[in-house]
Backbone:
């Protein structure tokens, strides 16, 4: 990625901060998912969803079994060849990886799909129940939802590239929301929520970026703030944790998606870098 363009750090006005707070509130009450899926009122949990409620959603899959090509190593799972039933689903490989807690990276688009799925698991089902896991998932969903709305190439040189990114990511989020409707608050839904948490934990297990950030800002920002920044930025840069830290990552991410930039400024309390 190119980080060479200079960019002043202190760009977050009071209006921008209030705008992000509104975004976080809307996500918490379910307004953003409804806007993306074309609904006018928040959904209320009424048990498992019927697949007939959506148009061609990814079909819910049975729980993983020994028939699949899955290799377990300690607390992580390496998934081999994908069973045929997943190959016939939209985002089938993503669902397969989540169901089996596979040890693999997801693309920006896949992460947006996961956000569409996870927001329903969080809001309607209360999955996962663990407060730490819920907090981590909410941070991820908030940032990835911003990508679902505004795309991941906001400042592209060509307007068509920015528009294309918005369209692709909006479709991914909608597909994730449809997947949640098909799965509902079922044991499979709980398994998928656990898979999301496993992915978030695995991706953040490398501390290269966080440690570099903490060293650079020692005495100014805490390691927890640097961890928060990485957790937010992953929505645009999924492999952020394995990268060398550079302060130029802040303007780079902000150019990619201003709302993700606002989120790390407000949530992580880093506005001057």
Residues:
């Amino acid at each position: 990625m190119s980080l060479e363009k200079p960019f002043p750090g202190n760009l977050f006005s009071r209006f921008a901060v209030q705008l992000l707070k509104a975004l976080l509130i809307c996500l918490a009450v379910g307004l953003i998912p409804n806007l993306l899926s074309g609904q006018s009122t928040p959904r209320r949990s009424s048990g498992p969803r019927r697949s007939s409620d959506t148009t061609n959603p990814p079909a819910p899959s049975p729980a993983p079994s020994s028939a699949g090509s899955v290799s377990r190593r300690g607390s992580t799972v390496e998934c081999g060849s994908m069973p045929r039933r997943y190959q016939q689903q939209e985002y089938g490989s993503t669902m397969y990886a989540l169901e089996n807690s596979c040890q693999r990276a997801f693309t920006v688009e896949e992460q947006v799909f996961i956000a569409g799925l996870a927001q329903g698991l969080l809001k309607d089902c209360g999955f996962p129940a663990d407060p730490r896991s819920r907090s981590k998932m909410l941070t991820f969903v908030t940032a990835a939802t911003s990508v679902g709305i505004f795309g991941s190439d906001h400042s592209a040189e060509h307007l068509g590239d920015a528009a294309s990114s918005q369209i692709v990511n909006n479709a991914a989020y909608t597909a994730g929301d449809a997947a949640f409707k098909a799965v509902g608050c079922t044991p499979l839904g709980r398994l998928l929520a656990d898979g999301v948490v496993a992915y978030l934990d695995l991706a953040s297990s490398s501390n290269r970026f966080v440690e570099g950030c903490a060293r650079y800002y020692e005495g100014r920002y805490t390691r927890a703030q640097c961890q928060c920044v990485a957790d937010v930025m992953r929505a645009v840069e999924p492999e952020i944790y394995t990268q060398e830290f550079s302060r130029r990552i802040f303007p780079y991410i902000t150019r990619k998606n201003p709302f993700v930039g606002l989120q790390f400024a407000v949530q992580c309390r880093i506005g001057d870098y």
Remarks:
- The chain has one domain: 14-267.
